[in-house]
Amino acid sequence: MLKNLDPALSADVLHALRSMGHGDSLVIADANFPSESIGRHTSAGRVLGMDNISAARAVHAVLSIMPLDTPLQASVGRMEVTSSQSELPEVQLEVQAVVDGAEGRATPMYGIERFAFYELSKKAYCILRTGERRFYGCFLLTKGVIPPTDL
Q1: Biggest alpha carbon distance in the chain?
Q2: Quick one: the chain helix, strand, coil %, rounded to 5?
Q3: Number of H helices, E strands in the chain
Q4: Catalytic machinery residues
Q5: Is 76 within 8 Å of 62 (Cβ atoms)?
Q6: How far apart are CA 119 and CA 39, in angstroms?
Q7: Is the pLDDT of residue 7 over 80?
Q8: Which UniProt keywords apply (predicted)?
Q9: What's the distance, CA 77 to chain centroid?
Q10: Tens digits of per-residue pLDDT, 70-122?
């Protein structure tokens, strides 16, 4: 165990988050997402497991150490519900609350059509597969920067 680190962050996940640069994205995937087939296309080339936790719990752990991209552009995408793009299922509302809490302000997520989400996921740095079993528990997070301390 390490101090001040969320225990949901395994060594592999910590390595991936540290290796990512500004503008790189990662996928928080639910248990139904085709993680293995899409994960082969990512920069990491494999799926990292966070199998025993919910999507909201995974996002909370990641955002405890990873900055999101600037408020000038949307930095958290969500997979849209196929039959109703504007619908926000409970799992997405939970993640929205986690994102807002981590950022200390309202940080609206943007919708991504399901098949477009799959294509964007292939360009991600990595996929973090969760144990989330509710549908549409898939999110795309874009890494931001940490400014110098002397500014």
Answers
A1: 49
A2: 30, 20, 50
A3: 5, 6
A4: 22, 69, 118
A5: no
A6: 11
A7: yes
A8: Isomerase
A9: 8
A10: 877 789 999 999 999 889 999 999 999 999 999 999 999 999 999 999 999 99
